[in-house]
Automatic annotation (TrEMBL):
This is Lipid droplet-associated hydrolase. The keyword Hydrolase applies. GO terms for cellular component: lipid droplet. GO terms for molecular function: sterol ester esterase activity. Keywords: Hydrolase, Lipid droplet.
């Protein structure tokens, strides 16, 4: 959405490191030193990066690569993360302390002990050991003679099924990495950036129990750490995206005027 005003929010899509990256901007239309604030939305799952293309580390490096390649260093940033996107934000802050972050909003943050959560206990075996089943159609296709393979690939249905299988396998691969790597909360990064962080925990979140909210609230009593009172579920984007967006705008309204 491109408007005539330099102060209207706009959305751009930029291809970066193998991923179609969505950018919400507040300021000028181009990514140069003239714009004021850039919002980077980091959802629960995203596209590929260069190294370990579908892995958790690759996702972190993709966001950092996008900022290095397309965003001037002096740009003020507001990062909004959901679920594993919050873990990615903390890693970005840790890996590049020079990022000019005004605020980082952590929605339903899965930043610790994921495999120990009620949902994690159910999904860990599936994500870590059963993802190879999703590769089975691709493996079977590779066994066919080339003449049959080329004919089969031309069929739209077959292509759709192959792409779907690959997508599921890659998503499960990243999910398995989350179960293995998201262990202890990064208290050092949180402590060093506490005034920039807003945490919003769900009251009935099976990926992030209320106990995790109580724990971080005890460790950081002066932090902006909130518990949902609106009944939003972890996957709020399915039915309450607009409500959550309005709520986030209220939180950061003052920072937009800096």
């Amino acid at each position: 959405m491109v408007t005539g005003s330099r102060d209207e929010p706009q959305t751009d899509f930029i291809f970066c490191c193998g991923a179609n990256t969505e950018v919400l901007k507040f300021g000028s239309c181009q990514l140069h030193s003239g714009h004021k604030i850039l919002f980077l939305i980091i959802p629960d799952a995203s596209s590929a990066a260069e190294a370990d293309v579908f892995g958790l580390n690759g996702q972190i490096e993709h966001k950092l690569a996008f900022l290095r390649k397309h965003v001037p260093k002096e740009t003020n940033l507001i990062l909004v993360g959901h679920s594993i996107g919050c873990y990615i934000i903390l890693e970005m802050i840790k890996r590049d302390p020079e990022l000019k972050i005004l605020k980082a909003v952590m929605l339903f943050p899965t930043i610790e002990r994921m495999a120990q959560t009620p949902q994690g206990k159910v999904m860990t075996p599936v994500l870590c050991h059963m993802r190879y089943v999703a590769y089975l159609p691709l493996f079977l296709l590779s066994l066919l003679p080339d003449r049959f393979k080329s004919s089969l690939i031309k069929l739209v249905f077959a292509m759709t099924q192959m792409q779907l299988s690959l997508f599921i396998a890659n998503a499960m691969y990243m999910g398995g990495q989350e179960m293995k790597n998201v262990l202890e909360r990064d208290n050092i990064t949180i402590k060093n950036n506490l005034e920039k962080l807003i945490f919003y925990y769900g009251a009935t979140d099976h990926w992030c129990p209320v106990q995790y909210y109580l724990d971080i609230k005890q460790d950081f009593p002066h932090g902006d750490i909130r518990l949902c009172e609106n009944g939003f579920r972890h996957a709020f984007v399915l039915d309450a995206g607009g409500e959550v967006a309005k709520m986030v705008v209220e939180w950061i309204h003052g920072d937009l005027r800096t």
